[in-house]
Amino acid sequence: MGYRAHMSRLGDAGTAIIVHELRKRYGNHQAVDGVSFTVAEGEFFGILGPNGAGKTTTLEIIEGLREPDSGSVWLLGHRPWPRKKHLLRRIGVQLQASSFFERLTVKEQLETVASLYGVGRGTAADMLELVGLTEKADTRENKLSGGQRQRLSIACALAHDPDIVFLDEPTAALDPQARRNLWDVLRAIRERGKTIVYTTHHLDEAEELCDRVAIMDHGQILAMAPPADLVRGLAAPTRVLVPAGAVPLERVRSVPGVDEVAEEAGTLTVSTRTPAPVLATLAQQGALDGLQVRSATLEDVFLHLTGRRYRA
Ligand SMILES: Nc1ncnc2c1ncn2[C@@H]1O[C@H](COP(=O)(O)OP(=O)(O)OP(=O)(O)O)[C@@H](O)[C@H]1O
Questions:
Q1: What letter does residue 155 receive in the DSSP assignment?
Q2: Measured from the CB, is residue 268 less than 6 Å from ligand 1?
Q3: What is the model's pTM?
Q4: CA of 27 to the centre of ligand 1 (A)
Q5: Is residue 143 domain-shared with residue 60, that is, in the same domain?
Q6: CB 152 within 8 A of CB 131
Q7: 3-state SS string over 273-312?
């Protein structure tokens, strides 16, 4: 299908990326196997999946770093392969492994990247602020923590103020606190109206951040929608947890709509698709102390789609 046909099907401008039937094989391994999606301008789009799912290959083809075997990509209305200089100015790319200029401070790194794009120093300062590294401006890159280094590498991808930012596993290998700090940075970038396409193998994170996600496995997209829609579509039971002994097992079992009751490791877990009567019963029995309610997550969606547990 041509670009015009795609656009008329989408019926609107405001489309940042169109990917159609993308395929890429390495030897006899089909790394990307017929991937299609579109990303709207300003959207935060996540490509999720376990290691080896084909996320990086897909991203690199869109960025114009790799040639697909077949299929088409339009990036801001242009074909990214072969590489086009004018497109490079409009996209920011953070690769999985970042390399920096040796012995330069944070500020110097950023100003150097900015000057390569012919951008003034003001933008560099602005990006340092955006990623929360202003205080580290005069620190050498090799003295930064893992999380700070990731933020610097994101700032470098943003140094020329691109319209679309590609981030390949920006939170991999970060401890939970650094990961959460980075979420704020990603949200701030999004608030600037940038289109973000990012890959992750952390499903909880994607659920938190993305407008829409594509779940990939074995080179294919298994599902694509806003995270909440995917979870809702699963119609999985809600689990209500209370300390064991808070309420007699039989009393809970007799509540209408209860699928399963299990007692394990000091916790009573009630699975139900209609939590209201369960909660009412617990309230009547004065058993609400220590109550937890857990809904399905993207991990359950993955399990449902693939039949196997997701190991991040
Ligand atoms: N240059 C290459 N040559 C041969 N095989 C490759 C190459 N790059 C990737 N692969 C293989 O293709 C498959 C998809 O890799 P890809 O890096 O796209 O997946 P991914 O979902 O990004 O995984 P990860 O999170 O580990 O990066 C993997 O099995 C990988 O080993």
A1: H
A2: no
A3: 0.86
A4: 12
A5: yes
A6: yes
A7: CCHHHHHHHHHHCCCCCCCEEECCCHHHHHHHHHCCCCCC
Do residues 144 and 87 share a domain?
yes
The pLDDT of 21-29, averaged and rounded, is 97
Q: How far apart are CA 306 and CA 88, in angstroms?
A: 37
Q: Which atom of ligand 1 is nearest to the CA of 27?
A: 4
pLDDT at 8 over 60: no
Q: How many domains, in total, are found in the chain?
A: 2
> Ligand 1: which residue has its CA nearest to atom 8?
57
Q: Which residue among 23, 24, 26 is best mutated to probe the pocket of ligand 1, counting the most ligand atoms within 8 A of its Cβ?
A: 26
Query: Does ligand 1 come within 6 angstroms of the Cβ of 312?
Result: no
Q: Are residue 184 and residue 94 in the same domain, yes or no?
A: yes
CATH number of the domain to which 123 belongs: 3.40.50.300
54 Cα to the center of ligand 1, angstroms: 6
pLDDT digits (tens, 9 = 90+) for 155-192: 999 999 899 999 999 988 788 888 898 899 999 999 99
Cβ–ligand 1 contact at 56 (below 6 Å): yes
pLDDT of residue 165: 96
Provide the b/e sequence for 15-27 (b: ≥16 CB within 10 Å): bbbbbbebbbeee
Measured by CA distance, the residue closest to atom 1 of ligand 1 is 26
- Whether 174 is in a domain gets the answer yes
User: Is there a single domain that holds both residue 139 and residue 287?
Assistant: no
Q: Among 6-20, 119-133, 148-162, which is the least confidently predicted range?
A: 6-20
- Residue whose Cα lies nearest atom 12 of ligand 1: it is 31
Give residue 287's domain range.
Answer: 237-294
3-class DSSP state of 68:
coil
Residue of minimum CA distance from atom 25 in ligand 1: 51
CA-nearest residue, atom 5 of ligand 1: 26
